[in-house]
Specification:
- This protein has 123 residues and is α/β, with parallel strands linked by helices.
- Helices cover 39% and strands 18% of the residues.
- The chain contains five helices and five strands, in the order E-H-E-H-H-E-H-E-H-E.
- Helix 4 links the parallel strand 3 and strand 4.
- Helix 1 runs parallel beside helix 3.
- The longest helix is centred in the first third of the chain and has 16 residues.
- It is globular.
- The model has no long low-confidence stretch (mean pLDDT 97).
- InterPro entries: DsrEFH-like.
- This is DsrE family protein.
Amino acid sequence: MTPLGILLRGAGHEPAHYALVLATAAAAVGRPVTLFATNAGLALFRRDAPLLEDPREELLEARGVAGIGTLAEAAEDLGIRRIACEAGMRAESIAAPELAEGVEVAGVVTFLGAVGDGQLLSL
């Protein structure tokens, strides 16, 4: 199947949530997925999980919609490759130990190599 690369650069809950929605859906139908976060989008990969504190998490749960916590677990189970942009980490003053377990640190070249001739989405 065609690989899917998702570039998450936007701040906040909504782009992070939808990046996970797209990533898990694509992986569930057998597509290889690489989720690459940079700058403000790196909040999704932080060990302290600041996006889980967003009020939208509770709202989504109340409405029967999977939130970031549920989708992040599914992403791990589905084998989605997660890459934190090394330059974006420097720009945001984020050190590697601040990232969640299993998140790689690499650059754009690694991301583009992982996606190859596949599709790219940016949020």
